[in-house]
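Exercise 3.2. Students should predict the tertiary structure of the chain below and write it as structure tokens, then compare their answer with the key that follows.

Predict this chain's 3D structure.
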Amino acid sequence: MTRHEKLILLIVGLLVLTRLGVLAREIYIADHYGAFGLTPQVKRFWTDVSILWGGLVNIGAAIWLFVEARVAALKSWVWALFGLCFGLLGVAVFYLIQLYVRNRGTET
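Answer key:
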């Protein structure tokens, strides 16, 4: 399995986990709060969980890009910072650039 296939599986897995999390949240809200919606305390809790999850994804992307950039002999700290700021979008940009460079090298 190539790195790109692993990346695709990682992204699909994260998207599935995100969708399952949204579904679980909606089921929890409907079950516990019904038509009245969330209390302010529960809204704050879910906001904190969302921020934490987003931060963990960005940290994971930064670590992934740091390792991959080091393997590709690029400035790993720059790519890690890019991953920390943009998360999975940073990982996608990294691989798109790598594909472009690889294809450009084979054309000449």
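Discussion points: Residues 3-107 form one domain. Helices lie at 3-33, 40-71, 76-86, 88-107.
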